[in-house]
Amino acid sequence: MTKPTLNSSDSLPTPDSGAMDSLWRPSWLHWLISALSGTVEIEKQTAWLKKSNEELRQSNKEARIAHEQRLKMLREENARLAELESKLDAVLPKYNSSSTQPTETDGH
Predict the structure, then answer these.
(1) pLDDT in tens, 39-63
(2) CA distances (Å), 98 to each of 6, 12, 105, in order?
(3) Based on C-alpha coordinates, what's the Rg of the chain?
(4) What letter would DSSP give residue 13?
(5) Is pTM beyond 0.85 here?
């Protein structure tokens, strides 16, 4: 029994045979490499954007907490000042009633 041999017409075309030159052109290979490189670059940028976005979220959260703490402190200070103002209002009429009221004879 003899081994079957492949005829040259039965073999797959190779880049050297000229049958697939259009597929093996450097421009096609260059396109493929560029497309794959672009995909890798897009994935890198996507990962960077996700990381950056997470950092911004964390920063915003910290800024919001600091802002809320500052707002709470200002409200407490305003309440304290309102209390002091009411105490002054209670004391000043007593002081003003015991002294003479200034008159507006200056012409102002």
Answers:
(1) 888 889 999 999 999 999 999 999 9
(2) 127, 117, 21
(3) 43
(4) P
(5) no
